[in-house]
Request: fold
Amino acid sequence: MKKHGGMGTRLAVVAAGLAVHSLVTGCQAGDPGKAVPGDQQERLEAMRAEGTRASLTVYPVVMGEEAVTDVAGVLALLLEQAGMKELGLSNAVFRLPAGATFEEAPALFGAFVRQSPPGTEYALYAEFIGDPTTGPKEIRGVIVDKSGQTVWVDRQTASDRALRRARPDCPMDCCVFLAERVRKGLGIPKSARDESGEGRIARRLAKDSPVPDKAEWSALERRQEAMKKAGRSATVVVFPVRLADDEVGQEEAARLAELLNEERLCAAGAVESPWRVKTAHSRNEQKVLWDLARAFQAHVKQNPPEADYALLADYIMRPEERRAWAVHFVVCDRRGEWVIVDFQNGHHGDFQSIDPKTYDDCGRLVARRVQGYLR
Reply:
């Protein structure tokens, strides 16, 4: 089990956390796309000839009634990692008018871009259609040049093999899927991949991210090593598990302490007095996680525990689906310095392995993650 450290993995954390974990219903799909006109093919070939140097602005990704800039950031980061060098992000929102079909999208988006051209040669519009229970039914992408002329159009529905094989179930997956469609559509070879984190989009997302900087990650990892070295002699107080903004679970905390003791990871005990904190709701999972981590850090600094460490877990459930959406936990030392800040959702192997559906499942996941850090 890998820890979240280093610049490359930190950017992966940023990308995963920016992803929205629910799809919303969009407009009705039209008929499949028609054959590519000759003049459009010429423009596509011209963009392909530019290769990884083709400059492209990604517009907010449309999901139902919303256009989400954070998801556009994920898509742009994935395109950058695919090798594209000249990428930008726009805050200008384009949506298809009510009643418009996808066949009209290229011309309508082209007219939108023509009115206010981006600072790049090309512009990308994307739309994900679906709902939280069934997943995406359709993934759409349109690229036009800065004069508004259509360059590339892609539409994958549930009847298309590519979408059926990929089986994306959240917008992060949709971004991965569409980025790969763009890569292939523009003829960018796999050998062009660059995951160094030195690109413009990577730097921008890292700057805007709630995730701590590289120096703080290094300090956090040193504290992890100290806790690992202490082994079973390390004492840990487990705070009542956060189940909602105003709901905490004392029994869940006691059970988590039992699991940690059973695994002989440390000497754990549950705190009896509840501690509640409200954090701002956000689509950005990393913001949710780090807002919680900072609030817990402040609490521990003001109220140092008698134990060596303090642990707070956060179980985010989807009652309508009878399963967990995400599991977070934070470990601070008695000075309030972060030791472990961990998140798990459906994109992670441990989460997938346990497939948590109950609070007890979530506790087992936390215990497994702690084991991964300390052994």
About this structure: The chain has two domains: 7-208, 214-374. The domain at 7-208 is CATH 3.90.950 (Maf protein).
